[in-house]
Write a structure and sequence with these properties.
Blueprint lengths: L1 E7 L8 E6 L3 E6 L8 H13 L9 E5 L7 E7 L2 H14 L1 H4 L5 H22 L7 H15 L7 E11 L2 E10 L2 E8 L2 E8 L3 E7 L7 E6 L2 E6 L4 H19 L19 H17 L9 E9 L4 E9 L3 E6 L5 E6 L3 E4 L9 E5 L3 E6 L4 H11 L17 H14 L6 E3 H9 L3 H12 L1 H7 L3 H9 L5 H9 L13 H17 L9 H11 L2 H15 L9 H17 L1 H6 L4 H13 L7 H14 L1 H14 L1 H6 L3 H14 E2 L25 E2 H12 L4 H31 L7 H17 L24 E2 L1 H11 L10 H10 L7 E2 H13 L2 H10 L13 H9 L7 H5 L24 H12 L12 E2 H15 L5 H26 L15 H10 L3 H9 L3 H4 L4 E2 L1 H9 L2 H8 L4 H17 L2
Parallel strand pairs: 21-22
Antiparallel strand pairs: 1-5, 2-3, 3-4, 4-5, 6-7, 6-12, 7-8, 8-9, 10-11, 11-12, 13-14, 13-19, 14-15, 15-16, 16-20, 17-18, 18-19, 23-24, 25-26
């Protein structure tokens, strides 16, 4: 690559560099220890220096220098990893620069021209690069090292790099840590010892900062059961944050299938930058803190003072501006914060230049004065340009006598701090929340605190349209909704009539229609029922959207990953805050199983409804932090009883009794039917606990838990939860497959890792890759990961034992069709392993049967003359697209009885009777014998012989194997000739079609009749002359003939080193992508 011209000192340089070419103005040099004559002590010393020192020489062992005859100064202008690359640069200089230099009179002019030309080339290259790095020159060098050392595909985008130590055992290796879009890489080279590490982000189990006696501070990475520690980082916190963001990005993109359409910095995996990741992290934190819609991105941040009217002083904080919101938070965030939708702004008064202040006027005759804003003039203009959206909906609240005191407190709060979307959020607001929200204001405040009020205001009429569109649809989701409707708070009067049930049905069905990825999951009905008690129907819908898509991400799906992640966070908090309990109960998984319903239903399923709504109040204000705090308070309250219990069942009984005893003395609701439990009978033995007191205690003891820490813990634990689920899937798949193959458990483990990685290799460098559709965690274990043809052909070419299938060969297409039993254009792990098992460990007969079937329909569908057309026609439907999905219906079932493609929730209705019938047929299905195989016709046999030649090519016994095949072929033809002559006298003269032509041959003829050539063959098939030359063989004939050839038998019975093949495939898998 071209380098920014830099003066270098050549006093001792010739000891490290060897001149390969030179002329009057340029010198091409090679680094000692590289290329011819490299190695030895010189190579070791130079290689070590190049790795430890941050110099261009360690990037590339070749360079070009510029100099002039009358000057001793040299300038580096180019470097190269390979000799071919540097020669291209040298030739370009010879052809484009040398002639021009002769016209200059002085050496200064020559040097100036060369430097200008090189800078121009670099600038031209920079125009084609969409990403601007902080230090482009150093980054280009680092990227060259990255490509050279790790040999990843050129599409892989390096994000950043750091110098660090990697601990391999007890010895640290000094080297370089490279963080790219899809991989974490490390390289070190010290005195001949090379250490190279490549881990993809989707393989990480743990990513955390740790410290111990030896390592004061380090980053711990757990992947594939191995621990990796990186220390001596100059910016450890910055490095960890970037690693955390890349791991989270990979998980969201590959497992959650997010497309990041609203986040330009992350929408293209080929253009990910450190700056873009940092901006996205800030936007995410901004949205989470202020509860804003996902569409909002943090655009500007201004430090300023805000006049707080109720405290009568200016508080220091930051103004945060997004597309549709102006937000302010005090310096620590806890004193006060305020959210102002741009649609509420009516005016921005003329800025005051003396105090650099501006005043924002909002509806309701309120104004906010910001002072000491550095760029106040531009901020005022920005706010003005973004105003003018319609006003937010007004809410009405009816007062009730029982709650007059609470309402009065809130009215005083509204008068001081404002009401609606631009209300100040302060510590006093939280105090009022902890005491309980009045019934009449609950719906309004839930809408405000959750941010749902903004969603509803910006999507007028959206809910009504959804209800109309989803009305009358019949899907798996609607079936589940109907089943659970009458289980939703059945004791509450509101859901004992058709009015409440119908509203619940409409809200749940509309949401399932809006978000088919979630559709409907249990617990959503309980949550929505409570929302409908205090909010209007449309408001309840938007509250459900806020909960499912923002506040409790990934909770409501088949794998409830979000709930499992928060349970892991809860376990961490128990270890930190309740050490006595941890000492007594070392296995905290008990609390995970018990607390699952707490998180999924926000305590609604375990507490009486009149108490549970107070918990929901806190949840909408503080998010998941409120549920974690309350969970800790519950365990703390029952600490002594839990420590003294003897088993899990006793602990569950203790907690159930406690929840039954929780009351809400301030609730105006009539007493509801309590949940049936053993605690109801002896309630007097348990002292009643007021929910307000319990919540207040939770805030007092555990209110110091910060939302930022919770979010960071969520990200860390999400890696572990997902990898645990993935490992469970792998173990179940291996257990099922191991019953049908002869591979060992460790070999199946390696095969599964290769199979899974092949899937992800198709998704790493493309956003919204169609291959993502081949991974569906909601399906049965065997069907969760599947490969399309392109993915299969690359992996199969690495693993098949005889190297007869190249990546793009037609033969690999035939193999794919043969093992794709259900014809859905996808191969699962079991199908893949069974094919390999036959080729690796099968008997001679089974291997030959596999090759024989490879040349029969549906695998082989035409003659060699039509292979080109076959490749065009049949590659298209099985490549990495979703076209095969359109051919499938709920009734397209596989031959092995496993459901291949269950319709997505909310998309199609499942006919379970069809599934049951298919399974019954499969149970009665007989095993295939060699007599069941159809005969192989002339075209198919010719291709079968060619396949054998391809398999034997390159073998040491190639000549004898070729002769054996030729001998078998001639023998079979003579046998067929004799057989046909013996049949001729008894055959009627008008019917000369061979009697042994089978349905298999006919189907092959019919299949090939789609092309012009094959139609000619088919039409002339009835002619007397051609029919005399037609012949076919049975499998028994082919098998018997080949068994008579010892060379062929010994070749197929020769054992294959499976472990070596797996090791080679693991190394070559990424390179095959590179060379594709």
């Amino acid at each position: 690559m071209w380098l920014k011209p830099e003066e270098i000192l050549l006093k001792n340089a010739f000891k490290l560099w060897v001149t390969e070419k030179d002329n009057e103005y340029f010198v091409l040099q090679r680094r000692r220890g590289y290329g011819e004559g490299g190695g030895g002590l010189t190579g070791l010393l130079v290689g070590t220096l190049d790795t430890v020192l941050d110099s261009t020489s360690k990037v590339a062992p070749y360079r070009i220098l510029h100099h002039t005859p009358d000057s001793q100064v040299y300038w580096s202008i180019a470097c190269g990893v390979t000799k071919e690359e540097i020669i291209q640069h040298w030739d370009w200089l010879q052809q484009n620069i040398m002639r021009t230099l002769s016209v200059f009179d002085s050496s200064e002019d020559v040097t100036s021209f060369v430097q200008g030309k090189i800078r121009g080339l670099i600038a031209e290259e920079g125009k084609t690069c969409l990403v601007q790095e902080d230090d482009p020159e150093k980054f280009r060098e680092a990227h060259l090292r990255f490509e050279k050392w790790f040999e990843l595909p050129p599409e892989e985008k390096l994000v950043t790099y750091y110098s660090c130590s990697y601990w391999k055992g007890k010895v640290p290796c000094q080297g370089w840590l490279y963080l790219s879009t899809n991989f974490l890489c490390f390289y070190s080279y010290l005195l001949g010892a090379e250490v190279k590490l490549v881990i993809s982000w989707d393989e990480l189990w743990r990513l955390e900062k740790t410290s111990n006696v030896i390592l004061t501070e380090s980053i711990h990475v757990l992947a594939h059961g191995e621990d990796h520690y990186f220390s001596m980082l100059l910016h450890l916190n910055e490095t960890f944050v970037i690693m955390e963001q890349l791991a989270d990005y990979s998980i969201k993109r590959l497992f959650d299938k997010e497309s990041f359409q609203r986040e330009p910095a992350l929408s293209d995996p080929l253009q990910i930058t450190k700056r873009g990741l940092e901006a996205n992290a800030k936007s995410e934190q901004f949205r989470t803190f202020f509860r804003l819609p996902k569409e909002e991105n943090l655009l500007e941040v201004h430090e300023s003072f805000l006049w707080v009217p109720f405290s009568h002083f200016n508080t220091l904080g930051k103004i945060c501006l997004s597309e549709n919101y102006l937000c302010f938070a005090s310096q620590d965030g806890s004193q006060c914060h305020v959210i102002i939708p741009m649609r509420e702004v009516v005016n921005v008064e003329k800025p005051d230049s003396s105090s650099r202040a501006l005043t924002v006027c909002v509806r309701g005759k309120r104004a906010l004065r910001f002072s000491e804003v550095r760029d106040y003039q531009r901020l005022a203009n920005t706010i003005r340009s973004r105003c003018g959206i319609s006003a937010s909906p007004q809410h009405s609240a009816s007062s009730e006598l029982k709650e007059k005191m609470k309402e009065q407190s809130w009215n005083i709060h509204f008068s001081e701090y404002g009401r609606g979307t631009s209300m100040f959020f302060t510590r006093k607001t939280r105090d009022l929340i902890v005491r309980g929200v009045p019934e009449a204001l609950r719906g309004e405040l839930w809408m405000l605190f959750s941010g749902a009020v903004n969603d509803m205001a910006t999507h007028p009429g959206y809910y009504t349209e959804l209800v109309e569109q989803s009305l009358g649809t019949s899907t798996l989701a609607t079936d589940e909704i109907e089943r659970d409707l009458h289980r939703s708070l059945p004791e509450h009067p509101a859901f004992q009539s058709d009015t409440g049930i119908s509203a619940l049905r409409r809200v749940l069905t509309a949401y399932a229609y809006r978000n088919p990825k979630i559709g409907y999951c249990q617990a959503m009905n309980i949550l929505t029922s409570v929302l409908l008690l205090y909010a209007k129907e449309e408001e309840a819908f938007w509250l459900l959207v806020a909960v499912c898509e923002r506040m409790l991400p990934d909770y409501f799906n088949r794998r409830i990953i979000g709930a499992l992640v928060d349970q892991a966070v809860f376990e961490d908090l128990i270890r930190e805050n309740l050490p006595q309990l941890v000492e007594h109960m070392t296995d905290l998984s008990f609390f995970s199983s018990v607390s699952l319903s707490w998180f999924l239903t926000l305590f609604i399923s375990v507490l009486p409804i009149e108490s549970a709504v107070n918990v929901v109040d806190c949840f909408f204000y503080d998010g998941i932090k409120a549920i974690l705090q309350l969970g800790l308070a519950v365990l703390d309250y029952n600490m002594e009883a839990l420590i003294s219990c003897h088993d899990d069942a006793e602990a569950v009984t203790i907690l159930n009794k406690f929840f039954d005893s929780v009351t809400n003395k301030d609730s105006p609701l009539p007493p509801t039917v309590q949940q049936a439990s053993v605690g109801n009978n002896d309630k007097s033995s348990h002292i009643s606990v007021d929910i307000s007191e319990l919540i207040r205690e939770a805030y007092e003891k555990y209110g110091n838990i910060r939302s930022e820490e919770v979010e960071s813990s969520r990200k860390r634990n999400k890696l572990y939860v997902i990898q645990t689920l993935e490992d469970t899937t792998k173990q179940n798949v291996i257990r099922v497959v191991s019953q049908d193959v002869r591979f060992s458990a460790s070999q199946l483990d390696e095969l599964y890792n290769l199979f899974k990685r092949q899937h992800f290799l198709s998704c790493y460098w493309t956003m919204n890759s169609p291959a993502l559709l081949h991974h569906d965690p909601s399906l049965a274990y065997l069907e969760q990961y599947q490969l399309g043809f392109q993915q299969f052909s690359m992996l199969f070419s690495l693993l098949e034992p005889w190297a007869f299938c190249s990546i793009k060969s037609t033969l690999s297409l035939w193999v794919f069709r043969l093992i794709d039993e259900n014809q859905d254009g996808l191969i699962n792990f079991k199908e893949f392993c069974c094919a390999l098992d036959t080729l690796y460990t099968g008997s001679f007969t089974n291997k030959l049967k596999f090759l024989f079937k490879l040349h029969l329909p549906p695998a082989f569908t035409g003659s060699p003359l039509h292979l080109k057309e076959q490749r065009i026609q049949h590659f298209i439907p099985v490549t990495e697209d979703s076209s095969h999905l359109s051919r499938l219906t709920a009734f397209d079932l596989p031959e092995d009885g496993v459901i291949r493609k269950s319709p997505e929730r909310g998309r199609g209705k499942v006919d379970l009777q069809a599934y049951l019938k298919q399974w019954q047929n499969e149970i009665l299905k007989k095993e295939e014998t060699i007599k069941d195989l159809p005969r192989i016709n002339q075209t198919q046999f010719i291709q079968f012989s060619k396949t054998l030649y391809n398999i034997f090519h390159g073998d040491p016994e190639e000549e004898s194997l070729y002769r054996a095949v030729a001998h078998v072929t001639s023998l079979l033809l003579r046998m067929e000739e004799v057989g046909r002559r013996l049949q001729e006298p008894s055959s009627p003269p008008e019917s000369k079609k061979p009697a042994n032509t089978t349905a298999g041959e006919e189907s092959s003829t019919e299949e090939s009749s789609t092309t012009p050539e094959s139609s000619d063959t088919s039409s002339s098939h009835n002619s007397q002359d051609l029919s005399e030359t037609e012949w076919s063989f049975s499998f028994e004939q082919v098998l018997a003939s080949l068994l008579n050839e010892p060379a062929i038998v010994s070749f197929f019975e020769r054992p294959v080193d499976i472990q070596m093949k797996l090791g080679q495939a693991k190394v070559a898998q990424l390179k095959s992508k590179t060379n594709k």
